[in-house]
């Protein structure tokens, strides 16, 4: 195991990384198109990179379709369009997943966003030009450490969340951390809750050291194994729909993948609580 130089996941140009489903968000929600959008994206990315040096920023992954390309996206929209449905975006970063839903007509006043790094969320207002319109409440917290049971910011969320978004988030933790984080998500859920996201994986599941700590990359089997434990330890039942996909299917370019080992994969998941 070795620590990698973060410049390995920095691409200077946007190239073909901005996909139509996200161009739609900037056009519809932010009123930004064409060259104005392009120079705007460069300016914001420059400010975002030093805030964590994550691949999701360096490789422009915040411009990928993400959950918009999931076959379950219409079902996800149906869930969050229900009256008073509540949405929580964990490790929200710039908050593009919430803006995706907003651009599809989902009201932002029932959205919550949580991140350990508040500057990314603040930059998100600039990125999407929606300060004053984006009503989501931001929770500045370490999701593994915050006292969910005793912290008032979670009162409207405990046992009440309809959709938990966790894109490129849970894999940042080691196995035990992921178990703990998922159990915390269960604590916020109710029957019908969906946990949706995507993250990097490896065909041979294993732990890695990264600048932010130990993380565990799943394959489909290890992901299912982890979720069997989550269900057993929380006495809840969930339908776990998880698939391993090629990272090019997310819209990543071959040159974005060079720093990764050959057995890289993407893990997409939609996990729905039955009882
Ligand atoms: C790889 S980025 C993903 C951001 C966004 N969800 C996306 O898909 O682009 C991971 C995010 O998780 C946040 N994060 C890392 N550890 C965290 C923790 N323990 N609690 C809350 N947020 C955390 C980081 O600050 C960062 O914004």
TrEMBL record:
<dbReference type="Pfam" id="PF13649">
    <property type="entry name" value="Methyltransf_25"/>
</dbReference>
<dbReference type="InterPro" id="IPR029063">
    <property type="entry name" value="SAM-dependent_MTases_sf"/>
</dbReference>
<dbReference type="GO" id="GO:0016740">
    <property type="term" value="F:transferase activity"/>
</dbReference>
<dbReference type="InterPro" id="IPR051654">
    <property type="entry name" value="Meroterpenoid_MTases"/>
</dbReference>
<protein>
    <recommendedName>
        <fullName>Methyltransferase domain-containing protein</fullName>
    </recommendedName>
</protein>
<comment type="pathway">
    <text>Secondary metabolite biosynthesis.</text>
</comment>
<keyword id="KW-0808">Transferase</keyword>
<comment type="similarity">
    <text>Belongs to the class I-like SAM-binding methyltransferase superfamily.</text>
</comment>
<feature type="domain" description="Methyltransferase">
    <location>
        <begin position="87"/>
        <end position="192"/>
    </location>
</feature>
<dbReference type="InterPro" id="IPR041698">
    <property type="entry name" value="Methyltransf_25"/>
</dbReference>
<keyword id="KW-0949">S-adenosyl-L-methionine</keyword>
